[in-house]
Amino acid sequence: MPKLHKRHDKSDIFIHWFNAACWILLLLTGVGLIQHPAIDPFGSGYPEGLRSLVGGGANLLAIHEGLGLIWIAGFVFYLLINFRGARFFLAEIFAVSPARDMGWMLKKMVLMTLGPKALKAVGMDPELPDQGYYNMGQKAFAQASVVGGIVIAVTGVIMYLSDRSFGAEATVLVSWSIALHFIAVGLVFAGLLVHVYMAAISPEERPGFKSMFTGVVPDDYAKHHHRLWWNKVKTEGE
Ligand code: HEM
């Protein structure tokens, strides 16, 4: 039986999959709310079809808003039950060591596209610098999803309130909220495509994918992919 290391708490696993489910539903309903011939991502058939499925645009908006409020409530609930976990996560993702992490990012991108020969050709060692609990790619996406998530939630609440209690004086605030809501969703979504590929499809990350269900990773995976974390676990314990 290989040695295993605890990587995620049950509440971390819950909030990750809860967040992923909310994102999928919010994207599906949000894209359906866009009904403009110049920017419909899937053509006009999708928003029309979705609206008729739920009984009209007003219902679709109410569903999107309801999902958004459930999404925010889920995070409040998580913070209440595992504030320490959230603090650990934030400290890890925002701890960037410029030389080590930028070197990792640059080499990883070259390795994934051109291969090790390209690095050797310019006199660089293809070995990746050691990484901690998260590698720099995971940290970059996590930073974008935290900052983007906050922008999406705050601007979403402003838009929700604008239909109910704001007057004409809030027009500028609401217009900026609409623009920022779209930009933040677009940026996080771009990162999400890479995240899903790296986390769920890339075979070398398979133990990391399984850990999002079991909470644990094998010793050799931790040693190879997250050496600085592995060293810490060895010296300080789990
Ligand atoms: C449904 C598709 C998704 C899959 C298959 C997936 C898969 C995973 C896996 C396997 C991990 C664990 C990585 C590790 O600890 O070794 C992870 C972590 C994480 N996921 Fe996802 N995820 C999905 C959706 C999302 C969404 C929608 C977000 C946020 C917008 C997100 C944000 C994160 C973050 C911040 C982490 C921690 C940092 C990282 O590993 O990148 N995930 N995900």
UniProtKB/TrEMBL annotation:
Signal peptide: none
Domain Cytochrome b561 bacterial/Ni-hydrogenase, chain residue ranges per copy: 8-215
Topology of this chain in the membrane: Multi-pass membrane protein
Gene3D superfamilies in the cross-refs: Transmembrane di-heme cytochromes, Chain C
Pfam families: Ni_hydr_CYTB
Transmembrane domains' residue ranges: 20-39, 59-81, 140-161, 173-200
Subcellular localization(s) per the UniProt record: Cell membrane
Matches recorded under InterPro entries: Cyt_b561_bac/Ni-Hgenase, Di-haem_cyt_TM, Hydrogenase_cytochrome
Coiled-coil ranges from the UniProt annotation: none
Principal localisation: membrane
Keywords: Cell membrane, Lipoprotein, Membrane, Transmembrane, Transmembrane helix
Official protein name in the record: Lipoprotein
Organism: Pseudodesulfovibrio portus
